[in-house]
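Exercise 7 asks you to align residues with tokens for two separate proteins.
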Amino acid sequence: MRYLIMCRSQTYAQRAARLLERSGITATVSRAPQGLGASGCAWCVKVSGARFMQAVGVLRRAGAPFGKLYREEEDGGYTEVGA
């Protein structure tokens, strides 16, 4: 299971991914799936479910800006799990 951490720009997503990688959490930057980004060109950082809560904690402690959080479902849909 994977989780998406929404970011408002590619730059913010890349910074978040670097913070996570330095903390030992594998993170992938990609464009947000259609319909999840408010402006249509949002970016996200994808992390595994096993490290999701740790990843959010790392970003919060670092003061890194991020938006909504989603869980990727098996059917290809997304469920919002927080912000």
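Second protein for Exercise 7:
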Amino acid sequence: MIRRSIDHGMRWYLAQRYKRIHHYMYAPLAVQKSWLHNLITSAKQTEWGSQYDFTQIKTRKDFAKSMPIQDYESLKPYIDRMMLGEKDVLWHGETRWFSKSSGTTSSKSKYIPVTAQNLRTCHIKGTWDTMSMIYHQLPHATQFRYKTLLMGGCVNPVEGNSRAQTGDVSAIMIKHMPFVARPFFTPDFETALMSDFEKKLDVKAKLLSKEKDMVMIGGVPTWLIVLFKKILELTGKHNMLEVWPKLQVYTHGGVSFEPYKSQFKEFLPSEEIKYFEIYNASEGYFGMQHHPKDEDMVLLMDSGVYYEFLPQSEWYKDEKETILLEEIELGKNYALVISTNAGLWRYTTGDTICFTSKFPFKFKVTGRVNQFVNAFGEEVIVENTDKALAKTCETMRVKVADYTVAPKYFEGNEKGGHEWLIEFKTPPDNLNNFALLLDQNLQKLNSDYEAKRFKDLALLNLKLTSLPPGTFSKWFKANGRYTTQAKVPRLANHRRYVDDILQILQSQ
């Protein structure tokens, strides 16, 4: 009875929040202009604000001209000083939290500042906005009557500064979860924040196999699949709805959900389960799915982030020029450029997005600037390979755990092509037929690839290697990246990842 009353009260509260969401969905330009003014004003007295003379910035065009586009390496010297406790560097005051992101381009970690303002107005606010959207779209939502799954990492003190902590963004959010929300999450925080990831999965599986009130789950699909398998082994059940009969919603993000859809339909065999994509990166909470039947996400305009967009023609120039929100064109790929109240200024996240709607501005994540294969002018991006693989799996009734793709360069008189490494959950009966159909589906999605493949004139049919189960996990462990943040790099325009994984395969 008490939980029912709490849920009714939260439904009213989230309905009030949704009014603000509706406002920035249809009046985003004024909201964005206001946030830029807020960011510049707040950082005028910082070292960065002084260096780039924030007192002279009056317009959005002034801001775009005031400093070059930044990446992690250009901000790293400032961030390093912030981690050691120095104040007023990129943002005012002292920053005590840093989100650790291994990324997908190297095993080297990145540390993204998470200021108190950024945590409150971006990450936590984005979570509340997502809950508001879920309650708005699902009349029978009961997230504040039952339990939601916590899939977090761990936190550790910064070396050389015990006042500062570092961990993946999920762990930082758990540490700062509002008290009003804590009773509705499981497992307990001690378990959720365990540092030994393998042990944590085992402990979670045991605890969650006995949980009957699970109503919502969230996390990267790859790791949830591992957890599901462990729980089903412990319970002897056929699917997760036999374990969690009250389950309503799965929020996912981090990687494309396309290759995992068929597997989740087996784990959650009900049309009543709703899937919501979110875009909560280490750098900020940027998007949430608008409706269960509309897979595009709404860009979060009122969360301490000012957005610019880098057209594809600018990605590899020394002096890059961005465009503003009102200048974007639907259907084109842009690299996301952000300025935030964490002290990231005109910062490229590395993600690429494509807008599908204006007013509201809705988008889908298409990949990463550095994740593509264009060794032969084919310009293949992650969106192409995800969709081609999903279509092939659906046709041949095959399930995939993970994959990566790299170019196979010309050798002697041989032509080049693409090399795919796929870890199958259920492998195809005929690997060659699967590879042929995958190649055909990729041609249908990418005209440049199709042109290069025409009669094998420039490129040969893709080469496909089936990896034994657990190969990618072994690769993560070998590189010290076995965490909830670990993501297999889908595409690379080099062979470092593929050759490294093939070497592990040979050693087995």
